Amino acid sequence: MKKISLVIFTAYSMFVFGQNVSDYKYISVPQQFRTFKEDFGLVDMLKKTLKSKNYTVIPYDKLQWPGEAQANPCSVLMADVVNDSSLFRNRVLLQFKDCNDKVISSAKGSSTIKEFKEGFQDALEQTFVSVSPSGPSAQAAPATTTTNTTSSVTETRETEISGSASSDNNAVKFSNGKVDVMKVQLDNNQFILVNSNSSSPYATFKTTTKADVFRVKLQNGEATLGYYENGNIVIEIPKANGEYGKEIFVKK
C-alpha cells in the first residue's frame, strides 16, 4: 500500500506541476525534421494542424520569435517529427519538448502505404488526435522548481492522496487476468491505473472531446488510446509491426 501511495503521489505531482501541450500558446517548428532526408510535406502539414488548433507557430530560429516568446523561452514548445520506420511500414513519432529539452508529449503513427510521401503523411495524421487545442493559462515554472516544495507539504499531500486512494469512491480494482491494478481518479479529467508492483503508473488516462475515450500514456512512455467498453477499461497496445492489440481490464 505504501508503494501504491507513492505512485499515486508521483502521478499527482506530475499533474499539478507538469505541463501539457495545450497549456502552451507558442510552438516552434523547424524548416525540416532532422531524421528525414526529404520534407515530404510534413512540416507544412504539422504547421497547418497546429494553427487549426489555435497554436501560434513560430520559427526554429529564436531571433525570429515574437517579443513575448523571447522574453519567456519556457513559454515555447519545440515540435519534432522523428522517422521511426520499420522495414514494411512508414512510421513517425511526433514529439513536443519544453525549454529543458524534456519530452512532455509524444505520439506514434504508422501507415501501410508504401510510398514515402503518402505513407509518412498518413502516419503523421494519426498522431494529431493526441494534440488538444491550445488553451494556455498562466505559464507554470519549469518542473525543476518543484524541488523547492517543502517536505511538510509533500507529506501532507501524500497523506491526503493515500487516504483518498483507499476510499471505495476513488479507487476501484481491475484486472486483465495477468495484472491487478487500481483505478484512481485524480480529477474530473484524469485517472491512472496503478500496479502495486511498479514505482510508476501502469497507464495514465486523460479525457478527449469524445465521451468515454481517453488519451493514454503507458508506463514505457508510449502514447495510445483507451476507452470504456461494457464497464471494462480497454487499452489499445501498439505492436512492433505497427498494428494494435486490445488489453481489457475487467472490474473486480
**Overall radius of gyration:** 19 Å
Tell me what portion of residues adopts beta-strand conformation. 25-35%
Distance between the termini: 18 Å
Low-confidence parts: 12-18, 138-169
The major β-sheet equals:
8 strands, antiparallel, barrel
Mean pLDDT over the residues: 79
Decide which structural class fits the backbone: alpha+beta
User: Going across the major beta sheet, what is the strand order?
Assistant: 6-7-8-9-10-11-12-13
What's the helix count? 5
Approximate shape = globular
- Number of separate strands: 13
Helix content: 10-25%
Order of helices and strands: HEHEHEEEHHEEEEEEEE
Strand-helix topology:
Layout: H1 2-17, E1 26-28, H2 42-52, E2 56-58, H3 67-71, E3 76-83, E4 90-97, E5 103-111, H4 116-127, H5 151-165, E6 171-175, E7 180-187, E8 190-194, E9 203-207, E10 213-218, E11 223-229, E12 232-238, E13 244-251
Parallel strand pairs: 1-2, 1-3
Antiparallel strand pairs: 3-4, 4-5, 6-7, 6-13, 7-8, 8-9, 9-10, 10-11, 11-12, 12-13
Helix pairs in contact: 1-5
